[in-house]
Amino acid sequence: MNLGNLKRKFHTMIIDPEDEYVYCGTSTGDIIEVNIDRAIYKRMAPIGKNFTQGVYAMGILPNGDLIIGAGDGALAKISIQTMKVKKRTKVWGSISSITFTKDFTHFFCGT
């Protein structure tokens, strides 16, 4: 994919339900949105402060919002429209996986 002058190491990737975009979690703590059809960089999140120790796990909600898990234990919900953090909390340990219940009302994260 063409990222222009950006250089990133990816730890995790997830594709949206419409197969239009892939979201890539990086070692620098940001998330890069890439258009699948054109294989080009679209935008980056979060706006403001990156997640320390990298983004290692991601899940996507039915409305398109992202749930991310970072190396420092940060859990966050990112709005897909604005690419801003809606909610943020922290758990003990690095987050290595995220999975949702069948109805998407809850999720589990592995550390």
Characterize the structure shown.
Strand 9 (97-100) and strand 10 (107-110) form a beta hairpin. A four-stranded antiparallel sheet has the order 1-2-3-4, with no helix packed on it. A four-stranded antiparallel sheet has the order 5-6-7-8, with no helix packed on it. The protein has 111 residues and is mainly beta. The protein has no helices and ten strands.
Strand content: over 45%
Helix content: under 10%
- The CATH topology is what? Lipocalin
How are helices and strands ordered from N to C? EEEEEEEEEE
Number of distinct helices: 0
Number of strands: 10
User: Structural class, from helix and strand content?
Assistant: mainly beta
CA radius of gyration: 13 Å
Q: Roughly what is the average pLDDT, rounded to an integer?
A: 91
- Main beta sheet strand tally, sense and closure: 4 strands, antiparallel
* Sheet with most strands: strand arrangement: 1-2-3-4
Which residues sit in consecutive blocks of at least 5 with pLDDT less than 50? none
Measured between the Cα atoms of the first and last residue, the distance is 30 Å
Question: Do you know the CATH architecture?
Answer: Beta Barrel
CATH class: Mainly Beta
What's the structural domain tally?
1
Q: Which overall shape is indicated by the principal axes computed on the Cα atoms?
A: globular
